[in-house]
Backbone:
């Protein structure tokens, strides 16, 4: 009797996989961070969506050329060599667990509104964030299957109440309030749009997941590009609509001071009774996202170790498939990041973390663009490959520019130190 091949997913499910992997902490907390700039940041969302579409197109093309890819190394090393394969893989891995701290900040920012605690107290916040980190570590020790079940539960019960707010809120939208807070800075509209492009792009991290799961998608040549584009557009529309909505219901100053902006908006729409309901839903969704991305951190770390890019302990799996030993180190590192980035406000801490992380991801995206442009002797680049690769590089260049020279220099310094350590380690183990 032959083995029955596992059933592959269609374009619709793949589309929602891409969209769900993007709609996370950025969706729940960026409205508060951006409120201090004004409604003009809606244009940042539009530009961020365009950039994400360009980069998504590049990854969809790579999925066609490398149908079995599940790690940056799979598409970088054949075209650019082992050193670049290491940089893309290790930086992507580092960004996954460092970025998890932003998710923990968002999750506890909503959770604390349900508890008899002072959310402005930094001791309370750091304790709550660290507790969530280690709780998700414990859940990940149960194995990938249990994490997937937990995440599915969080998605279903976490997003539905928030969706009610997004739909029902338009009847309470005040166009005058929105126009009055169009630009509350002393900068030009263009400057505000560019300045906020990098933090906004945090919400689009995950656009590459359609390509990363190409092996389980039915007819990937046709459906991965559709799923990637569809998922990005769904996320972009949700982000843009929610950003405009909240700034037309709640004064910008109140939003900027809130650790739970959607709960605050729900209170304005439905009354005080809705605040704990929406806060609980948002906290649940963000917690599920934290658990899912911690799984990604463990899995990507294991694949990096298997390729010799990380110490072997990251590749040691428990009998249930959990990368438990590597995740132990990751959870400890996340705890340290939580203390290092602690700021007087939730929004301030969130912005600090995503400022550190976005460019690490972008450097992995740069490698994707270069891989398309260079190709391999077996896969020489077509004109479409070169154009998509060039588009990806230009998009990444804009993100570097928007991040400022200090942040860009810091990210490049991290990459340089990582490469030097890799070369030393590789030489000693050769």
Residues:
């Amino acid at each position: 009797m032959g083995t029955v091949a596992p059933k592959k997913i269609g374009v619709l499910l793949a589309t929602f996989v891409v969209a769900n992997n993007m709609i996370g902490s950025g969706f729940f907390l960026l409205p508060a961070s951006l409120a201090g700039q004004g409604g003009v940041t809606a244009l940042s969302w539009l530009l961020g969506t365009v950039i994400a579409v360009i980069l998504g197109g590049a990854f969809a093309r790579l999925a066609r050329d490398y149908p079995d890819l599940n790690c940056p190394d799979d598409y970088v090393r054949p075209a650019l060599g082992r050193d670049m394969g290491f940089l893309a893989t290790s930086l992507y891995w580092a960004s996954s667990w460092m970025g998890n701290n932003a998710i923990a900040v968002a999750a506890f920012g909503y959770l604390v509104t349900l508890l008899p605690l002072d959310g402005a107290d930094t001791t309370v916040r750091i304790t709550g964030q660290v507790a969530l980190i280690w709780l998700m570590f414990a859940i990940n020790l149960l194995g990938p299957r249990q994490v997937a079940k937990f995440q599915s539960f969080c998605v279903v019960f976490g997003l539905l109440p928030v969706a009610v707010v997004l739909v029902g809120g338009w009847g309470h939208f005040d166009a005058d309030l929105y126009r009055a807070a169009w630009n509350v800075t002393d900068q030009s509209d263009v400057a505000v749009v560019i300045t906020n492009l990098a933090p906004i792009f945090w919400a689009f991290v995950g656009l590459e997941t359609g390509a990363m799961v190409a092996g389980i998608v039915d007819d990937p040549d046709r459906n991965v590009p559709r799923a990637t584009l569809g998922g990005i557009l769904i996320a972009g529309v949700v982000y843009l609509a929610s950003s405009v909505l909240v700034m037309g219901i709640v004064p910008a100053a109140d939003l900027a001071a809130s650790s739970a902006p959607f709960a605050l908006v729900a209170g304005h729409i439905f009354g005080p009774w809705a605040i704990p309901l929406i806060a609980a839903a948002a906290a649940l969704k963000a917690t599920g996202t934290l658990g899912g991305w911690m799984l990604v951190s463990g899995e990507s770390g294991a694949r990096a170790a298997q390729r010799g890019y990380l110490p072997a302990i990251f590749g040691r799996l428990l009998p249930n498939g959990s990368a438990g030993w590597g995740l132990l180190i990751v959870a400890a590192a996340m705890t340290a990041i939580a203390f290092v980035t602690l700021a007087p406000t939730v929004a301030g801490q969130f912005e600090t973390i995503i400022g550190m992380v976005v460019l690490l991801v972008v450097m992995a995206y740069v490698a994707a663009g270069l891989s398309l442009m260079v190709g391999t002797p077996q896969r020489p680049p077509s004109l479409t490959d070169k154009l998509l690769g060039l588009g990806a590089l230009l998009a990444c260049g804009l993100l570097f520019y928007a991040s400022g020279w200090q942040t860009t220099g810091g990210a490049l310094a991290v990459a340089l130190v990582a490469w030097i350590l890799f070369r030393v380690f590789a030489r000693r183990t050769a």
User: Anything to note?
Assistant: The CA atoms of residues 298 and 327 lie 6 Å apart. Residues 274-306 form the longest helix (33 residues). Residues 11-117+157-275+342-424 form a domain with the Amino acid/polyamine transporter I fold (CATH 1.20.1740.10).
